Give the backbone structure.
Amino acid sequence: MTHPLARLVLAALLAAAGFLLPVLLGGSTLVYDTLVAIAIFAAMSYGLDVILSDLGEISLVHTAFFATGAYAAAILTVTYGFGAWTALAGAVLAALALALVLGAITLRTREFAFSLVTYAAAVVCMNVASNWDFLGGSDGIVGIPPLDLSVGPVELTAGRSPEFWPFAYALLLVTLYVVHRFRRSRLGQAALMVHMNPRLATMCGLDGNRIRLQVFLLSAVISAAAGWLYAFQRAYVGTDLFDTYFLVLMLTGVILAGRRILLGPLLGTALLLFQKSFASLGAYGDKLVLGVVLVAVLCLCPRGLASLWPRRRSAPAATGTATGEIGAASTRHA
Amino acid sequence: MSARLEIAGLHVAYGQAEAVAVERLVVEPGTLAGVIGANGAGKSTLINAVANWSRAEPRITGSVRLDGEELTGLSAEEHVRRGVQLVPEGRGVFLGLSVEENLKAVARPGGHHGGRSCAVDDVYALFPRLRERRANLAGSLSGGERQMLAVGRALRMAPKLLLLDEPSIGLAPRLVSALLATIRELVEGGLTVLLVEQNVHAAAEVTDVLHLLERGRVVAAGPVAEMRNDPRIVEAYLGASHG
Amino acid sequence: MNVAQQLVNGVIIGHAYALVAVGWTLLLGAARLVNFGHGQMYMIGAFVAWWVMAATGLPYPAAVVAAVLLGAVLGAVMQRLFLRLTLSQDLVSLMIVTLGFGQALEGAAGLAFGPKPQTLASPFQAMSVHLGPVWFTVQDAILVVATILVFAGLSLALHRSWLGAAVRMVAEDPRLTALGGLRVSRIYMGIFAFEGAAVAFAAALVAPRTPILTSMGFDQVVMTFVVVVLGGIGSVLGSYVAGLGIGLFTALFGALVSPAYTTAAVFALLIAAMVLRPGALAASGSFAR
């Protein structure tokens, strides 16, 4: 497990196996639908995961970034007739712009206040989206064309779910790669230090607010990219994107498995959506299940299901200096 | 007759780090016992563990007995009800409540467990300064007044054993002597006290027995007269003048 | 535009905001709990009152009492669930857990009461009072009077009673409260039960004004969040003033500027307040008088 090449081969094998998963599960439309949804919502959740695991804050505004990506895709394709690539660029830029504004406002606050301010920001975004005609108002925007990412002679289009799977899966892999790289990057290490030991970070010459803003921007782009793809998959965007449901799904997905585990949000989201697809109790029942799962995780094992796993490695966090944490965290992701 | 307080094999740990390991410590009824030691020796951890109270979440094992009755495993509230009363280090009063409210808003002092019950007026008689400031918010009191209030509040619950954690901290020397003298008076009246103090000079003036704590362990203990001449204490805490 | 009527509307809405907020205010002040399940508890209160009237034929006042009782039970359930997080003061986890709690309540209510909109029929909603250029319903008048009584009662209880002192002690320092021999979990139980009962009471009085839906939790109560936070964390009088102020702002902004963007405007105000005065959010813990 320690040889880098061996790890690379293992990751490639896992990625290949993941791609074949819908076929292995029978290849029905429901399987494809479910897996596409898992890939997209997991990608969305990684935006929040970066904030939660690496900055130690809980953002309640990430549904707005997800919605920004989706709305940007819808407006650029439906209203202005642009292609999907342009829409992606637009989604990223719109999310960066929104994150820059929100970041400037919220990042001076910490913890409790940060969560409250981000929640308030999400409510403002939702209120604006449901009333501004440019964004379709309460009707939303319908008639988003099928996804077409063709480049030159290479034809890349998708309409139905089975065709959509490669794109959703690719988005997920890119997201995982980005999060993985981020955690090993200077920014990722700096973010962790700012989170774990702000005073030490300041002494090391790190500008906490600047780092927090950079991470915030990255996380917004991740969630927005997921929203961009979701718009094409659903062919419709509306204010339901701001629903508490998405927020709770994201939070539960991230918290369920445990913090700072690369595949955690993916597994959490997968569990929740598998239940919704294959063991559904109806719309109300599923809501009940989702709520109960979130309450149960936080009340019974707040460190996530992974903490129930027998420890292979003793936690250095007990006496936890920031550098110890960072070392442990980076090996865990390596 | 069993001792008022009997600690046996008490171990307290935060995470992996053991902070206190006291094999045996006994306090006889009607005496004032002191625990002295340097900063970080585990004095507060020890006294908090006796009351099963902490702001962190330590792991406590071992035995703490009050008049022969096992207390280990009981909640902090239950310790109070049985007569073990802690005055924690630093903040022992509610700053947002008035002096009088601080004294009144405690579990009904029964005296049913054998401690001396103590009315609000008794506290005022003991600390007249508090009567003058009865309507003021505790947040507006000076450090010395707050410490008096914390002790007064503790007495309201009729303790059989009063645990004092660094009552002298942050007080002017004159106030320290006055406060400790009052504690001594209470002991003469029958109260049993375990006092944690970094101020060894002051503690040695009023205590009957001293326990020296180093790195969580009791390294020396005995009547205060003997301990004053113990070279470890003389060198480290009392300085040459007492040698 | 009839300015006098808008002012009256603002006063009524403001009292509704304040009454819906009162339990949350105490909860936030005493337990530092931002209850995102508050809206769903409001919804449950309204539906329980509706169900009591529809299924048993009992009169409206009895339905109010039933809603309050069930609300208190719901609050007690919350306390059992959240006690550990409350004691460890893990504020952010507490906040998240209430989001899940709200989802669960909404799902359960959907299963129990179905998707159809219902009407909580208060006989006082049909009686109106005309005073010169303005009018309001008897229900509105009851709402305003009840709100004033609840706030006055709570304020008195907090500052003049032994129980109130206990609540303020827990708010300031729960660990130290235990050293007074008081059972902290019981005090929390009372605080949570009050939150449940108060929001159910508010729902039973406010909900007759509009049709009720099991999905209304967020929309109906989103302003409460502003009232509670803007009122100053846990300040009882502050949230009354904030409720009234936001009610008047809503009515006037809606009439003069844009009804659609009222929520955004109010939340923008809130964000400005929170960012400019983050100290107010540091949860100082003392209840302002």
